[in-house]
Inverse folding.
């Protein structure tokens, strides 16, 4: 399965995660608030580690199986 995540980035912006998962900004922030997606802030910018997005996808696939 090819990943829509940028392969050169280790930390993604919220818009990049929105595009990769095809979710709304509201949903991505809800996932961050519920700790389903790990994130950190650098200055005023929110970043989500690419590994966190992959782990989220794997968990959702296991849940669906």
């Amino acid at each position: 399965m090819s990943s829509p995540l940028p392969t050169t980035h280790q930390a993604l912006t919220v818009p990049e995660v929105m595009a990769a998962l095809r979710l709304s900004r509201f949903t991505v922030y809800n996932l961050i608030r519920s700790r389903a997606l790990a994130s950190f802030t650098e200055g005023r910018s929110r970043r989500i580690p690419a590994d966190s997005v992959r782990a989220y996808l794997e968990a959702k696939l296991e849940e669906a199986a």
User: Anything to note?
Assistant: The chain is about 50% helix and 15% strand. Residues 50-64 form the longest helix (15 residues). The chain has a mean pLDDT of 91. The CA atoms of residues 2 and 20 lie 11 Å apart.
